[in-house]
Amino acid sequence: MSLRSCFSQGLKQLHHTQELCNATLVAGGKRFPCNRALLASVSPYFQAMFSSGFKESRDGEVLLKDMDPGILQNLLSYLYSGELTLSPESAEEVFMATSRLQLKPALALVSRYLMERISLESCLRLYMLARDHNHRTLLRGTLDYLGIHFGTLSHHKDFPCLDLEAFINIISSDRLAVASEMDVFQAIQRWVVAMPTDRLSTLRTLLQHLRFPLLTQDETARLQDDLAMLDPQLELQWEELDGAGRLQQGRVLRQGMYQERIVCIRVPRLGDILSASDEEDRYLECLNPATGSRTKLPPLPLVALPGCSVLEHRLYISGGKHPDGSYSQALQEYNSLADVWHQLPAMSTPRSVHMFLTCQQKLFALSGWNDSGPLASAESFDVAQQVWSPIASLPITLRFSASVPYKAKLYLIGGDADSVAVVYQGILIYDIHLDTWAQVPLGCCLHGASAVALETGICVIGGFFSKKATHLSPNRTFSPHLQCTSKGFFLLDSGVISREVAIPPLPLPLAFAGATVSQGKVYLMGGVCASRTHDAIYHWEPGEAAWTQYPESLTGQGALVRRVLKCVTLKVANPKLDALLRDPCICRVAIGAAEPKPPC
């Protein structure tokens, strides 16, 4: 028997016989003998109580006022046996008790239980519960759910019961899935009208959280009429703004004001650049997966094998190789809201064939190649500060790894380890907070695979694969010693392959395909099949038994494409807002003392 099993069985026996008890908890007139060392080991609340000079520390008796004895019995059973009984009727009360007693392991179980069963009926109540108990995980989860269903929940009978602080926290959130800022104003209007005597005085404060520049002319006129009925003394101030001014004054778009597009980035080799026509300079294309429509992004000069990444509505292209053979250190940013490219501060090191990832508002350029050969160096770009900084170098140099950010770490899975001319049989994991690299054995050779992050882990799909260590042949395009695979696997954040999550095989073996997630589906585009480039698009939603081929190909003509792809999911403004941002002659309104004047 293991030590853990022996310990667990011993605790159950002590609980059953009530032996060695040196503390008593009292709730609802009932007494519960227990062991103070056990309580103090899992609860800062009891640890402070039993290690102080208070009466409870001397005689070991703790009176828990206003606590249901049945709830306390349930929690003590959990501490002694690891078994916690939860039901929809009792879960919220158990949450309050575990929070009060600071039983962190139980609190994590209860909050997970509540989030798994969150509904339109319980969301607002759970949000207030999480806020009152300062439980960040439950608060974040309920805010996300509330944001997605804001339109419905703003009409819920409990919505007017929110206090001022909670209400402001919600209407100021970027996560609201509203297509128009008018939806937020109407929610403000309903909340105020529910108790006008008490709340009319807060209207000016509430309107400070409304993003006026994101309203159309018609919406602005309607809002002004509604405000005049609520508070005739409230005045509006007007100012002319173009699209850029609207974005600056309107702060951040709400979640529902975006739509997702998949940007296909052709990643040409040097030979393709030299033979490319002027028309092929436009090598970035936006695909609407819902309709199949495509649009071209503004042109950007072709470079060979650049890095590509995305952050919300901004696309980044870094490095690459110029047609004259020189290596680039440039960083280009495309803003989908303004539809323009900007050149940002350059990397400190020119690099191509590098991994380029976005995580926690930073860009990471990792390894790659330049005139000096393979690179182990890495650097990060702070998007807010617009500054590059060196980070810890990789323990080995890598190319063609399946690379993906997940939580606060970067994962480089397999790849070519050029310094020793072998395919890397492992995973490099970079911890952003610690600035350290760790190596985890993979158990197979893999390069040219694709990877995407899901909520619970990482999907790794396709690539050139072998269970045995394989040396690369010189001057190869793709290693003849590795077979292309159609299989995939699911990776946990520890770097261990999960046997519980199955990824169905692709319809055919593929490597070097572009991969991204859009609307909950994993998309795989292009790639190499049997040493020839492939132009099909496949998608798969976790839980489905097979991949589905998208109706159209990358070329739209069924012809083979000559370039391997990368793809990312970019946020773009919805059509209504996009038109608004491109109109240079609409005015914004703000709360002020100036006399109102009509919009231009």
Automatic annotation (TrEMBL):
What the entry lists under PROSITE patterns is as follows: BTB (PS50097)
Give the UniProt keywords, A-Z. Answer: Kelch repeat, Repeat
Q: Where is the BTB domain?
A: 21-88
InterPro entries associated with the record:
BACK, BTB-kelch_protein, BTB/POZ_dom, Kelch-typ_b-propeller, Kelch_1, SKP1/BTB/POZ_sf
Q: Which Pfam families match?
A: BACK, BTB
What is the protein named? Kelch-like protein 6
